[in-house]
Amino acid sequence: MSKLLIDLLKINSVSGNESPMTDFLIEYIWKRKDHWKVQPEVYFGEDFHDCLLLKFGKPTGAVFSHIDTIGFSTRYENQLIPIGGPEIEQGTRLIGHDSLGPISCKIILNDDFAFHDFPRAIDRGTLLSFEQSITIDDEFIQAAYLDNRLGIYNCLKLCEELENGWVAFSTYEEHGGGSVPYLLRFINENAPIKFALISDITWVTEGVQHHNGVAISLRDKFIPRKKFLEKILSLAEESGIPYQLEVEGSGGSDGREIQFSPYPIDWCFIGAPEDNVHTPQEKVSLKDLQNMVDLYKYLMKRL
Amino acid sequence: MSKLLIDLLKINSVSGNESPMTDFLIEYIWKRKDHWKVQPEVYFGEDFHDCLLLKFGKPTGAVFSHIDTIGFSTRYENQLIPIGGPEIEQGTRLIGHDSLGPISCKIILNDDFAFHDFPRAIDRGTLLSFEQSITIDDEFIQAAYLDNRLGIYNCLKLCEELENGWVAFSTYEEHGGGSVPYLLRFINENAPIKFALISDITWVTEGVQHHNGVAISLRDKFIPRKKFLEKILSLAEESGIPYQLEVEGSGGSDGREIQFSPYPIDWCFIGAPEDNVHTPQEKVSLKDLQNMVDLYKYLMKRL
Amino acid sequence: MSKLLIDLLKINSVSGNESPMTDFLIEYIWKRKDHWKVQPEVYFGEDFHDCLLLKFGKPTGAVFSHIDTIGFSTRYENQLIPIGGPEIEQGTRLIGHDSLGPISCKIILNDDFAFHDFPRAIDRGTLLSFEQSITIDDEFIQAAYLDNRLGIYNCLKLCEELENGWVAFSTYEEHGGGSVPYLLRFINENAPIKFALISDITWVTEGVQHHNGVAISLRDKFIPRKKFLEKILSLAEESGIPYQLEVEGSGGSDGREIQFSPYPIDWCFIGAPEDNVHTPQEKVSLKDLQNMVDLYKYLMKRL
């Protein structure tokens, strides 16, 4: 497994405090872009909050990858409030940092309320993440936050060969969103797009299994336009890359904010499926991940 | 009853795949507009996805009518997932089409989950609609999808006499929306509006009954501005056209997306009430429908 | 307590019908602005619906204060439907006005449904408010609608000294919002901002108590950006003004619409805490209110 992926998995960037990931990406892109096929324009800084935009060539589409993760806020009297939808299990280890120093503690469940067991009070509003633990074998990677470190990884691999297109690193996706609207406004004013692919990780279910290929989502809580799905499916079929079709009635992604944006932009979620969703033991097939990378490269050349 | 209405009722256009209705409307408008009082500019195509916009004269307002319907997506293992909020009843007949051909099946309920009974697997993500069955007598029309074929019908009747105003055919209304934002942006950049009427069908309740006139909604989940409601009510009273006042605490329409748009646009939902909402047997008084058509013509001249 | 605050508390402006408050503010601002340090540009009228915008100097930020209140709509058969989230208690007195004259009635609860006891039918869709009753002693003010009359009061006190910044009086906040998007669009086209403070009233809880200072909210249902919170906290600390830190998992404000706007604008909710939230007996510490006024003046000079 590449060093890049391991590096990505070690960075904390809970929704609201994504800047450690932004900083990492800026540095990585700076170091690596000379080896990329096309040199992108890179946009970041206070006008983009903690987001990052890369423009390659003459874009007609974009790939969105969220850089935030689920986690917890500390409240009063050792209470924990979720950020996004983490699985809240007795004993899960959390880490963070407040004005008094580093924090490592466990979740204590009491009457369905969550508390931490840190021996001192933690500053109010401190953001805590799952402690990271990465396991890789021949078939699988298992770690916290594969959702959406793998989506970021996919984007960075795509950057190596991308000729035309935006790559957008968004924030707050796990907690209701809010960055996609201003990213889309900037994109629309700079080089408008017709479509967006959502580079994110989905669920293993009775219909979507490990090793069966990258999942193309035909719907989640929201429904992409059939005409666009048909175009994607026809290209996916043509590519020969293993893929599987997902149909869900719930769940959302940055696609939601594209659907409700003031621009007529088609969208589709495409990503490897994971087991143990939103736990510290998210698990993805390495083969599915490779299919994801391959399909994005194929599609972004042809859509 | 007019052939137009029957034609409209026979077209399938579940949210996400409204293009059959768009195609019908384009053809209908093309054939009929020479007989209209004012020739509109007609906007459609990929920049509007499956929506359609007509601009008559110098608009200060718009009428919105959604062209999508509720329905179902097929999932895995014969499961059905709702699109919008259909009533899910044992034995309801559904139709559709996948790669292997036409589909006609029934809903089977099992432990509150919905399945189809089609003898073969249906392609994942296939969109299914209620089978249509139209009954008309002297007083009522009964059919699937009166919501919102009657709203479209109302708009097309309005087009015959409209001198100034936008007519907007929107998509995705039954499933959370998403087209109104880009339609409003286009409208605002082309010929901005101060108000919008929502041409849609509402509910028969203890306060809103068949044959008592078109319903003017004073609120649903959202609340129009009192100043605008007062203007509408004063014109409705002056018109002599039968109407009734609706007050609901839930439900929504394209009015919701106008309320939350970045433009200060007043809105009001005005439509005939129906019984058996979101079933294949929606039922509307023909008299109420005629009152709806008459009131829209009256209001769009004077607002 | 100032006459201004008493005047504000006596005005009815339920969501959807905020114009009485708008009219009061226009008149107040007209009379008083000559005494203000900087003369603002004042924007109102039909292009702003019932909102009001003041631009002081060269703004980089804004303060938002909502001018609507919770209340009730009358439905059929003496039913009441809530507007926003009022506490619905047996016997609470409500007032309003319909075509037949003034209304004063009580809430009757029956099987969890709310009715009024007015001896005649009330016009459908009439807006009712809590009857006002104001009590002030050395420590506390108690009245209906401190949320958000105190937020408005805070803004008007700020106006006396504000040199650079927008002050925005928004509508519909209690009932889902809808005015902030067009206010932000106007602001962005006229004099864009980097940040917004939400001048509103929050809750007394186990962690936020009367007399402990104005509450700075580190999160509610939504999460401001950590970088911006740190700037606020550092200025608050430096100011010497008493404040307390709030951390909630639910609740929202105009900050929500700023978060989801198409502009990269940081936001933070800062306001005195109240007891008996959304009842006719909301209660706030006068000291906390003064701290709120002082902190806004301090921050708006330095952010």
Structure description:
The structure is a homotrimer of 303-residue chains. The first copy, chain A, has 303 residues and is an alpha+beta fold. The first copy, chain A, folds into two domains: 3-69 and 135-302, Zn peptidases (Aminopeptidase), CATH 3.40.630; 71-130, Elongation Factor Tu (Ef-tu), domain 3, CATH 2.40.30.40. The first copy, chain A, has helices at residues 3-9, 19-32, 146-159, 180-190, 226-239, 254-259, 286-302; strands spanning 41-43, 52-56, 61-66, 71-74, 80-83, 93-98, 101-110, 113-116, 127-130, 135-136, 140-143, 165-170, 195-199, 202-203, 214-219, 243-247, 266-271, 273-275, 282-285. In chain A, the strands form three sheets. Chain A has an eight-stranded mixed beta sheet with strand order 1-2-12-3-13-17-15-16, with helices on both faces. In chain A, strands 5-4-9-6-7-8 form a six-stranded antiparallel beta sheet, with no helix packed on it. A five-stranded mixed beta sheet of chain A has the order 10-11-19-18-14. In chain A, helix 5 (226-239) crosses helix 7. The longest helix of chain A is centred in the C-terminal third of the chain and has 17 residues, at 286-302. The radius of gyration of chain A is 19 Å and the shape is globular. Chains in contact: A-B, A-C, B-C. At the A-B interface, helix 5 and strand 16 of A face strand 5 and helix 4 of B.
In brief, what are we looking at here?
3 copies of one chain form a homotrimer. The first copy, chain A, has 303 residues and is α+β, with helices and mostly antiparallel strands.
